[in-house]
Write a structure and sequence with these properties.
401 residues; alpha/beta; TIM Barrel; Lyase, Ornithine Decarboxylase, Chain A, domain 1; 9-stranded mixed beta sheet; 12 helices; 30% helix; 23% strand; globular; EC 4.1.1.20; De-COase2_N; decarboxylase
């Protein structure tokens, strides 16, 4: 998308607004499938939590992708988007067995990461094939909040508890049809990924009726010009070779599965906001925008970096600005960042806003959540309306006081 395209979106739908470029999504999907083209059976499950708009889910369905879901609501969103339930994997954490049973009724693949739930489920539903999420005890990821495979993580069944898993499987007669792991997000070192994969292979060899191995995801994308990213092509070459060797020793061609989210949608997204005020203080020049961490919390939550471009005047001389929001709390998007000279009314574009941005938005300060727009085949398509005051009060009930 060009700067002119982005400005066109703000002129048509106002600001703030999220916009996603379908071409980037499609190219990222093809890049990953191409990297693993020598795997006989490859399955991608798009991680719905990254960006759950129905139009985005329909786009992935058209590409042939399945879905990775973590709540029963995400499962239902996937089905509403037309995705075959058999192509949806349900990997919740800390939910009751009732939610798992509801997912079974919807016909999706169940993934369990708790010994007690595994035993309860196997006892009640021994004929329902189940995938097991292991914790490989590998620390990986760009932030402690997104590193989920280490020893202190709440996710997965420890590899040291495999004897317990095998006992449960034997006692209940249940079928384990998949083994799953996810070590974290923003993994740069493919050596760490390959090391964790060996742990997954060791666990998988203990089960006789597997259909697939799910390696999660966590591929790092670039956040600014010249930034480093996961070399998925090198990973594809090395993991494909090792996976095919494992299948040969296992005696069966298994499916290799991944659950990419950020890798597929992060770079496709832009968050566009208007500058309300330029404020000079004794030490800083603030660019104050018509948004806040209620719309884009990642910089405050994860310390994430989002390149910010003044698309209204991209060729002006650069100055240092701190970009902040309108929330009644500190909501700083960037400190002392070089941006072309900003005037009131300019539109700032935040890059890498496709993943975990709108999906983490809120109504804090009773502000409306922004609209979402899909830029597809050269046109802007509104895929979620801007909220109104009616949306804020819709579910509130008044009582006589």
């Amino acid at each position: 998308m060009t700067h002119a395209n982005l400005l066109e979106v703000t002129q048509q739908f106002g600001s703030p607004v999220y916009v996603y470029d379908s071409e980037t999504i499609i190219n990222q999907y093809k890049r990953l499938t191409e990297a693993f083209k020598k795997v006989k059976h490859l399955r991608l499950h798009y991680a719905v939590k990254a960006l759950s708009n129905l139009s985005i889910l329909r786009l992935f369905n058209q590409l042939g992708s399945g879905l990775d879901t973590v709540s029963i609501q995400e499962v239902k969103l996937g089905i509403a988007a037309g995705v075959n339930p058999k192509k949806i994997i349900f990997t919740p954490n800390g939910v009751s067995i009732g939610e798992l049973e509801e997912a079974v009724g919807l016909g999706v693949q169940i993934n369990i990461d708790n010994l007690l739930i595994l035993e309860q489920f196997g006892t009640k539903h021994p004929k329902v094939p189940v995938c097991i999420r292991i914790n490989p005890h590998v620390m990986a990821g760009g932030n402690t909040n997104i590193s989920v495979g280490h020893i202190d993580s709440k996710f997965g069944i420890s590899i040291h508890q495999m004897p317990h898993v095998l006992r449960i499987v034997e006692n209940t007669g249940m079928t384990i049809n998949g083994i799953h792991m996810h070590t974290g997000s923003d993994i740069l070192d493919i050596g760490v990924f390959l090391y964790a994969a060996e742990i997954l292979f060791d666990v998988a060899a203990k089960f006789q009726n597997l259909e697939f191995l799910d390696f999660g995801s966590g591929f790092k994308v670039p956040y600014h010009e010249g930034d480093i990213e996961t070399d998925v092509e090198e990973l594809g070459t090395k993991l494909t070779k090792r996976f095919n060797e494992f299948c040969k020793s296992y005696g069966k061609d298994l499916t290799l599965a991944f659950e990419p989210g950020k890798f597929l949608v992060s770079e496709a997204g832009f968050f566009l906001a208007k500058v309300n005020v330029v404020k000079q203080t004794t030490s800083t020049v603030f660019a104050q925008i018509d948004s806040g961490f209620n719309h884009l919390v990642r910089p405050m939550f994860y310390g994430s970096n989002h390149d910010i471009i003044n698309i209204s005047h991209p060729k002006r001389n650069k100055r240092f600005y701190s970009v902040v929001g309108y929330i009644c709390e500190t909501d700083t998007f960037a400190n002392n960042k070089m941006i072309t000279e900003i005037s009131e009314g300019d539109i700032l574009a935040f890059k890498n806003a496709g993943a975990y941005c709108y999906s983490m938005a809120s109504n804090y300060n009773s502000r409306f959540r922004p609209p979402e727009v899909l830029w597809h085949k050269g046109k802007a398509h509104l895929i979620r309306q801007r909220e109104t005051f009616d949306d804020i009060v819709r579910n509130q009930l008044e009582v006589a006081l």
